[in-house]
Amino acid sequence: MIYPILSYGNNVLRAVAKDIGKDYKDLQKLIDDLFETMYAGNGVGLAAPQIGFSLRLFVIDGNPYSKDEPKLKDFKRVFINAEIVEENGKKWLFNEGCLSFPKLREDVYRPSEIKISYYDENFNFHQECFDGITARIVQHEYDHTRGKLFVDHLSPLKRRLLKRKLNDISKGNVDVDYKMKFSAK
Ligand code: NI
Hints:
The protein has 4 helices and 7 strands, in the order βαβββββαααβ. By secondary structure, it is an alpha+beta fold. The longest helix is centred in the N-terminal third of the chain and has 14 residues, at 27-40. The two termini are 23 Å apart. Nickel (II) ion (NI) binds at residues 98, 100, 140, 144.
């Protein structure tokens, strides 16, 4: 099932999401729906809060970036109750977008390496290190489970300049070719 994606301005995107228990009902269905909704919007990652579930869950399929980073070719993952344990390396700029912000792309600085612990869809525990674009996608999605958004990483000046654009996004005054729910409508 394809869910409408919540736009910037929706309070669910600002909440710190809750842990998922092993006994969470219909978890596989929710995971399948997240992937389906993500693919419908041509995204490389999607977090549960973006479809209205304030849960520590996000999915990633990095394949569209495999030309830039070959190891992303088969990088299709589910992250449950993820915790970034360490962030290391030099901060670097990468042009990020987000399905909750249609048509907006901005350069964002983040550290280049992360160590993250998480459970996969079978509730197996993992602790892994990622770098490059892989780390970048994980950092962006992880932020969603903490109520944080990529525009929070921009300078105050840059955010001021984007104010009208962000306002338009929250109101739905933007062209979008996937299903969305605008907060101020
Ligand atoms: Ni996003």
